[in-house]
Amino acid sequence: MDSRVTLKVNESFLEILRSCFQKKEKVSLLVDENGVERKEGFIKSIHEDAPLISIELSDGSRIVLKNIVAVNGVFRPEYGEC
Predict the structure, then answer these.
(1) Which helix (H) or strand (E) holds 17?
(2) What φ, ψ does residue 36 adopt, rounded to 5°?
(3) Distance between CA 3 and CA 46 in Å, rounded?
(4) CATH number of 46's domain
(5) How many domains does the chain fold into?
(6) What is the pLDDT of residues 36-46, one digit of tens each?
(7) Nearest to 44 by CA among 64, 31, 59
(8) How many helices (H) and strands (E) are present in the chain, helices listed first?
(9) Residue ranges making up the domain that contains 60
(10) Please, which residues have CB within 8 angstroms of residue 46's CB and are 6 or more apart in sequence?
């Protein structure tokens, strides 16, 4: 069985995404919205004031935080083994 790098106990994707946004770094995401798909790009904005926290990529796609499975190779703990 293989293992993957996962979020630490007190870490969240929001912290990682904020850091990438501030540093203007490209993000590589796995998103689970009716099946897992890959998305890449630069973060245009982070929407924390809505009922569901989301990010908007430079291509205009909007992704709800709770649907993100992985950011730059770091996975949610429940996706840590394959």
Answers:
(1) helix 13-23
(2) -80, 130
(3) 30
(4) 2.30.30
(5) 1
(6) 999 999 999 99
(7) 59
(8) 1, 6
(9) 13-79
(10) 14, 17, 18, 21, 53, 54, 55, 56
pTM for the predicted model, two decimal places: 0.87
What the block records as the tokens of 63 is 């992704």
Residues 57/63, Cβ–Cβ less than 8 Å: yes
Q: By three-state DSSP, how is residue 81 classified? A: strand
- Measured in degrees and rounded to the nearest 5, phi and psi for residue 68 equal -80, 125
- pLDDT tens digit sequence for 60-75: 999 999 999 999 999 9
Task: Judge whether 54 lies within some domain.
Answer: yes
Cβ-count burial 25-50 (b if 16+ within 10 Å, e if not): eebebbbeeeeeeebebebeebeeee
